[in-house]
Amino acid sequence: MAQTDFIRMIIEEDLAADRHGGRVATRFPPEPNGYLHIGHAKSICLNFGIAGQYGGTCNLRFDDTNPSTEETEYVESIKDDVRWLGFEWNGQVRYASDYFEQLYEWAEKLIEKGVAYVDSLTAEEISEHRGRWNESGRESPYRDRPVEENLDLFRRMRAGEFEDGTHVLRAKIDMTSPNINLRDPVMYRIRHESHHRTGDDWCIYATYDWAHGQSDAIEGITHSICTLEFENHRPLYDWYVQALELEDPPHQFEFARLDISHTVLSKRRLLMLVNEGHVSGWDDPRMPTIVGLRRRGYTPEAIRNFCERIGVAKTNSIVDIKLLEFCQREDLEKRAPRVMGVLKPLKVVIENYPEDQVEEFEFPNHPDNPEMGTRMVPFSREIYIERDDFREEPPKKFYRLAPDREVRLRFAYMITCTDVIKDPDTGEVVELRCTYDPATKGGTAPDGRKVRGTLHWVSAAHALKAEVRLNDHLFTRENPNDVEEGKDFIDYLNPSSLEVLEDCRVEPSLADAEPGLPYQFERKGYFVVDSADSKPGKPVFNRTVSLRDSWAKIEQAQLQG
After folding, report:
1. Range of the domain at 485
2. With contact defined as beta carbons under 8 Å apart, do 409 and 400 qualify?
3. DSSP strand E in 299-428: where?
4. Could you give the CA distance from residue 262 to residue 494 in angstroms, rounded to a whole number?
5. Catalytic-residue membership of 507
6. Looking at the domain assignment, is residue 472 inside a domain?
7. pLDDT tens-digit profile of 461-484?
């Protein structure tokens, strides 16, 4: 069912009034200065979703006007992310740099109209003259330069005659405006830097505010949808298109950006996490980047569902990360095959089971989806179970294995613990001795007796050694952007956000598991084969999301009580 929100209501009103000739044209305009994150996913889903819903078009345009921060690597990653999320842009990829010549010609037009001028103040002096939100600005002494002098200086700026910072081009609007963005904003700066697409053709570069709206106009965008931090820039957006007297100009609309608990979505802060080594890279599975979420095992369907559930609002708020995790569980519940993996192995020797015997039990790959087929899992005298599935002195409501207690091994047999072997130096339990009831093959007792505990397991002789990485929230604080006095957001990093288990055991069916494939480790959570570090026969798994673990809650409550 199609969504309804205030932006879609505006579009429907425009369509009813035949504005823009009944067209709907949106765009997704990232700056290629970093990797996209989950907040960008919301914008992607909104812009492409609106275009699809109303039979319109959505362009992918890179606002590449800052050569010092932009790289082709980011361009390619952004294109890949958009496609991975399930969207395809209208026509070819577009770039603001495609329009540099047109933007320059329009800048000269504003100079000729007397509403733009070359200013020779330093950056510090310009900032000082602009004033503050609560005080008026002051006009530059160069504000009333003659048109011909401004044109001459601007053309010489383009020709490369001046050093960086010598001059800028500013719009002549209103230095007394309560909106500081209208106090003669800078349109062009001199930067003798090579651009990732135009090379050394240009040494003056347009500012974002000048390039953005005019690029929208060149492309015939009808609805320029931005996040709320650009709301105060809208009057400038409108001033530029009106000063140029453009026909059928675009209009800007703002919606609340996405903020998620226990993470940060600022590009600057994400870059700091990478550069300072707090994470392994942009694709670290704990990062909120799309490449990080993808490596962690998140699916495009789950992310699109999440963006649809949170909707489009007019005020900023923080979305609980648990909603994103819920959407991921909901998606993987349907598609992830079930397998058995023991994360913290404890050896069990079934003493009355024949030493040389190996049986195979048929397991369904999905309990509710028979079309996914079955697999055969080997069983032998020595197996591994989870260390947490045994307690020498079990607490109340602990129904798993304990001395003299019988439990069921999933789809195999019922076993009873008869002896506990400990390390003589540390006292740690290192092995369990058990017996099995041959009559309970398949996990059912012919005499009808019941057991309350069912454990997953792997055959010690056949299990595959694997590394498992347990990813958790990157920050301990719900809102790490809300920094206490004397602290930095880095101070709220979660020291337990990654636990690496190097001695796990998984069933042999995972020997050739392909990178990126999701699985549910029964009773442990959803995991994905790591796309960077896994090798044939040596899998590495990232935990995507945990299961709802009632046992852990009971145990925690008992420890606290």
Report:
1. 338-560
2. no
3. 318-319, 338-339, 341-342, 345-350, 359-364, 374-379, 382-386, 406-409, 414-422
4. 9
5. no
6. yes
7. 999 999 999 999 999 999 999 999
